[in-house]
Amino acid sequence: MRFAAGAAADWLNSPAGRVATVGAMKLGLVIFPTDRGIQPVELAREAEARGFDSLWFPEHSHIPSSRRTPWGGREGGLKLATGITLVAQRDPLWLAKEVATLDQLSGGRFLFGIGYGWNHEEMAGHGVDIKRRRKVVREKILACKRLWTEEEASFAGEYVNFEASWAWPKPVQFPHPPIVVGASATELHFRHIIEYGDAWMPIEGRFPVAEGWAALTRQATESGRDPASLQLGVFGARPDSARLAELRDTGASWVALGLPPLDRDAALATLDRYAPLVEEFNR
Predict the structure, then answer these.
(1) In the structure, what pLDDT confidence band is assigned to residue 63 with cuts at 50, 70 and 90?
(2) Is the peptide bond before 114 cis (omega within 30 degrees of 0)?
(3) Spatial distance between the Cα atoms of 239 and 234, rounded to a whole number of angstroms
(4) Cα gap 159→26, rounded to integer Å
(5) What are the strands, taking DSSP E only, across the chain?
(6) Is 106 strand, coil or helix?
(7) What is the average pLDDT value for the chain, to the nearest integer?
(8) pTM of the model
(9) Domain 6-281: which CATH number of 3.80.10.10, 3.40.309.10, 3.20.20.30, 3.40.190.10
């Protein structure tokens, strides 16, 4: 089977959806929000003022979409991202509408980071068989794509089924926000990324990024997808200039630096310590 560049090509060629130009690497932030840490609205404002490119919110504590909604409509270049959304635990009809709404509120600056999940108890509580979660995620993302791109959409799968449905609004980014897959470096995960993803986002320190990226681009070529239609991002990287340069040279388009869930003063002091790296890489 050959895969058209599709969403990835549109994303790469669109100023609204572009994460970084070829040969460049942008720095963003990832933080687990808590009710005791700096508030997301202020963090977004301060991160953007220091030149950060994106702000990522994980799940398991607070719901990432709810942390973005109050400030998603502000003018500016900061990209808003889930890092990651637990797709298997979501209703695809609701998820498609939620993602499209966030893309509208952010002015086309939303990055849809997704993952398969790992928490057995959490998945069981949502009625998800952890052994089948990858298949469930695949079908739900394919269903979302239909809802984003077709006026009247339907889907018939093993885990997702719905008849003629209409989902509005549609996303600002055409045909939808970039789908960034957070996953380990395996042939199965790469097959999924090649089929329905726009980028791979491994966690720094858990997997050999350079080797994994080489394997993904090779597998994409063998599958008939242009590897240039895929991007590499790295999650939770250390604020180390030499390591960031290595990731840039590997081909990373963006890196999300880890920011602990600190109170306001400590968080802003950490942003100030990161600022020289932003000056170095976000050019």
Answers:
(1) low
(2) no
(3) 12
(4) 37
(5) 26-30, 54-57, 79-82, 85-86, 110-115, 153-156, 161-165, 179-182, 199-200, 231-237, 252-258
(6) coil
(7) 89
(8) 0.88
(9) 3.20.20.30
Total Cβ atoms within 10 A of residue 34:
12
Which tens digits make up the pLDDT trace of 76-123? 589 999 999 999 999 999 999 999 999 999 999 999 999 999 989 998
**Distance (Å, rounded) from C-alpha 30 to C-alpha 233?**
12
Residue type, 195: E
d(CA 138, CA 144): 10
Give the span between the Cα atoms of 41 and 74, in whole angstroms: 10
Nearest partner of 234 among 219, 221, 253, 216, judged by Cα: 253
Sign of dihedral through CA atoms 83, 283, 272, 46?
A: negative
Strands 231-237 and 199-200: parallel
